[in-house]
User: Fold these one by one.
Assistant:
Number 1:
Amino acid sequence: MSAQETGFTLLHDPLNNRGSAFTLAQRQQQGIEGLLPQAVDSLETQVARIHLQLDTLDSDLQKYLLLSDLQSRNQTLFFAVIMSDPATFMPLVYTPTVGEACQKFDHFYRAPRGVYLPITAKGRLKELLSHWPQKDIRFIVVTDGERILGLGDLGVNGMGIPVGKLSLYTAVAGVPPELTLPITLDVGTNNQQYLDDPLYLGLRQHRVRGAEYDAFIEEFVQAVQALYPKSCLQWEDFANINAVPILERYKDKICTYNDDIQGTAAVALAGIYGSLRISGQKLTEQRFLFMGAGSAGTGIAELISEAMVLEGLSIEEARARCYLFDVNGLLESTRTDLADFQKPFTHQHAPCKSFVDAIESIKPTAIIGVSTVPKLFNQQVIEAMSRINERPIIFPYSNPTSRSECTAEEAYRWSNGKAIFASGSPFPPVDFNGQKFVPGQGNNVYIFPAMGMAVLATESTRVTQAMFIVAAKAVAEQVTQASLDSGLIYPPQSQILDASLRTAAKIAAYIFDQGLARVAKPADIDAHIRGMAYKPMYA
Ligand SMILES: NC(=O)C1=CN([C@@H]2O[C@H](COP(=O)(O)OP(=O)(O)OC[C@H]3O[C@@H](n4cnc5c(N)ncnc54)[C@H](OP(=O)(O)O)[C@@H]3O)[C@@H](O)[C@H]2O)C=CC1
Ligand SMILES: CC(=O)C(=O)O
Ligand SMILES: [Mg+2]
């Protein structure tokens, strides 16, 4: 507690506020005696009170708002609540609820959190950024709000995503919250509903594109580098027309990554490794067909290809096992509408507009949905996959739940229990034919917090593709046989903190071995990471 922070302001400082847990001595010392009811609570009692309050609420959005208010009031208590039961609270602070919260962000706006950088402030971004009170920032999650989950252009309403992701850096991998900073770049929105809504909080203009946008991004990167030289910059939920070139431009210059491209790729690869433990097959024997050919689809296809190269294929042979299908059909060499980043996965094949026909022709072992469109993995699709494969891999990865390409129940029912299933947003267990199936959440939440902790512990200069393969393997090898037997191909969410710390230690070891660290290698990396991990307690 800083010396200046006495009295009333302390009760409104979320990093240092303890609310009813201030002891009598602290209350007297800080000049807040009389400003609180007499009882002195333990953190456990405070957590129990929040659980009770949440139980009285009917909707997940209301619960999200209660937790968001708590985060603005008392961060220690907020994280103690989330970390008390991650499997329950992750769907509230993250997908699916964060999607609805973003859609209605302007209507439910309460307290400011993070930094908003409007393009109208170009030339002054460093000044605006310097208004953030913390000076040692290690992780920034930044969005421009154009592709928020599968919900499209939400403009500044997308701020819920950087806030939610950074909460999970802390809750899921122990990155101290004061080292994190959520940022929204406001370059306008093309969402007419928001532009027409008097409550919309962002710039009331259409999106800026082209050279002016690129210059804005460049100024932003420079400002971040100048103010926070040890920070890692995570790009989140940009439209692919910007996401792909931004990553290309900065990945070899600064410590940065794109979670939708690389984090998603790693969690998919982890899921594939887990699936192969069930099917007993090799990675190089797989053929992948993606529904969706954007940031996530091409990112996953590329990382899977790079992982196949480690198992002996050439990169061309590996990419030839990854087929992509988008709104105009299969990506094949007669198509003239494709972007450069899609071309490595554009193969010789007859034009094909039907996904089921593509399955019959390509005979994929796995289908991965990253299309933003619900229900595309219909009964015909799942039945075709189940005819071709003994254990078809079915990953509807689009978020939130309302955008999932199919539900867990549909996948198990239509495949007659054969599907190896994981989805971007969570589904409850499914009872089918007397068997209980536990669907995994194939979400980059298994990767980005661990990546963050590894970068923090090593002060890595870069985030490389190879680090994501290390992360994928680390996640997959933690899955127990008992989990696999129930169909679960990821570590259980109840143990996600422990799983992330293990994954972080593996990534950190790799960073040290590659000479990318800016700190000396500790004797025991695992203990070093666990020692650094944030624990929700009053100091
Ligand atoms: N589970 C996880 O951890 C993650 C999940 N995701 C999810 O993946 C989804 C896609 O994200 P991202 O790749 O960044 O988005 P993009 O917009 O870059 O890609 C979407 C792709 O889907 C295609 N598409 C749209 N409609 C259809 C359709 N009816 N049939 C077939 N293809 C279609 C688009 O084609 P076209 O461009 O021609 O319109 C495009 O290729 C989102 O819902 C997101 O939430 C993303 C990251 C992580
Ligand atoms: C999970 C995630 O990053 C997305 O859906 O965009
Ligand atoms: Mg995302």
Number 2:
Amino acid sequence: MHDDPCCSGVEDDLALLDLLTAPTPPVFTGRYKRRDSDLDPLMLLAAATSGPHVTRNHYAHDFFPGVDDPIAEGSYDWTRWQATSSKDRQERKPRLKYVSRQAPRSQRLGLKRVEEDKENGGVARELADPLRNTENLPPRDPQPASSHVEVISASASTIASSVSTTSAAPVLPALHLKCMARTRVPTPHGPVFLHLYHNNRDNKEHLAIVVDPAQLDSESPAHAPAIRSASLDAVWTETETEMDRITRGAYVGRLSAATQKPSSPFYVVPPPLTPSEALPSPLIRIHSECFTGETIGSMRCDCGEQLDEAIRQISLPIKLPSVTIPGRGAVIYMRQEGRGIGLLSKIRAYNLQDLGHDTVTANLMLGHKADERGYEIAGAILKDLGLGTEEGEGVRLLTNNPDKVQALEHEGVRIVERVSMVPRSWQSRHVDHEHEHDDVQIVTPGEEGVTPKGATMIGGGAVYGDDLEKYLRTKVLRMGHMLPLLGEDGLFHDQ
Ligand SMILES: Nc1nc2c(ncn2[C@@H]2O[C@H](COP(=O)(O)OP(=O)(O)OP(=O)(O)O)[C@@H](O)[C@H]2O)c(=O)[nH]1
């Protein structure tokens, strides 16, 4: 052993390496005292036995290009070794570069996707591709979380709008859906019941905004059937308490510190006072999420206004020959941002629209369909609320979109009437679209002084502007929305 601490360290390492790599296993004699060295003997051993590509942290990369790969830039091929002067060496200093032996991430993901596509008949790609999937969330487990979950299966498979191309529909698990909670929310148009749904299909929390203020008055007899969620009112577990039911919203009447009456699945709803044929069917809107229009008041679209207008119209009192009853219906709020393409793609589409393309072309340029929404979940929510069922009342649907009517009918929703959603900025120049029923009249709030004109979203009132005009015209001209356009001649033209 050397006395020089520097040399003795290296020699110790080499001796240890020799010993560890010897054909017969080493026997520790206690001659090598433990110390911290610059060279970790275990790393040396790992490097010597596992090949040049193994480093402490990287199992698929070389920071120093492999000596066994003469082609790699910077590597050293000893068979070609020639003595060079120190001047030459300085000129040809090898550049050490980071070299990865993995294919680029995009290529590896691409390959993985092709394999998944083969295995799943194309479904995996649709669900896993982060640029196509709306929220970058993984699909949920197709099985319900627990066996006691009350489920509602929808009647038919998802269909996209008729604007969609005819590619093969992915095979999806049967839809299971459940209302997890409900609560009263006061709004400028009156109280509503907000229902939150979970389902096994898309990992999103879809909502139902139920307008049925008559339910808050549990003392007076009801004139119309209550709009309640069957899955919420069901018994979830044998051990659930009244407080469990009340907390999740399964109660009747209005909650207060003094009144807490849980609903019961065995509770028989008293028959309505008014015969069903005299009642107008509940007014329904299937609304798609629009962060820009509803939250930051974007004037590129009328989505915020439409949401507000729908709640306002549904909340209007209904005047029957002998009595005026509160408005009733629901907005089913679907988390299908950007007509199903997601917020990220919608933001990109807006930039393409600023370049001069319309809303349909911008979607197509991004590799999306003009409309990627499905209505199976919306249909199942309506069914859970007892709306639009074959055996119950039909519904009146607030929309201009013929595809939506068709898609909902395909899901088994009984639509007895379509009610137009005329943009507020167009209302003054259009003929009055007020709904007329033989002896039923919707009370206009201005007349009664009940509620101010619906204007609750950011910016309030009517949305207007060039961007919106272009958007609305495209919906009429390219997506077949059923609204008359005002021509340059000053006349309305049905498209
Ligand atoms: N991709 C895309 N989506 C948009 C654009 N503007 C609004 N949206 C989305 O469109 C959805 C609302 O769709 P609308 O066409 O207004 O309504 P609709 O449901 O088809 O028809 P109506 O029932 O008549 O209102 C929301 O999800 C918005 O986020 C846009 O320029 N591009």
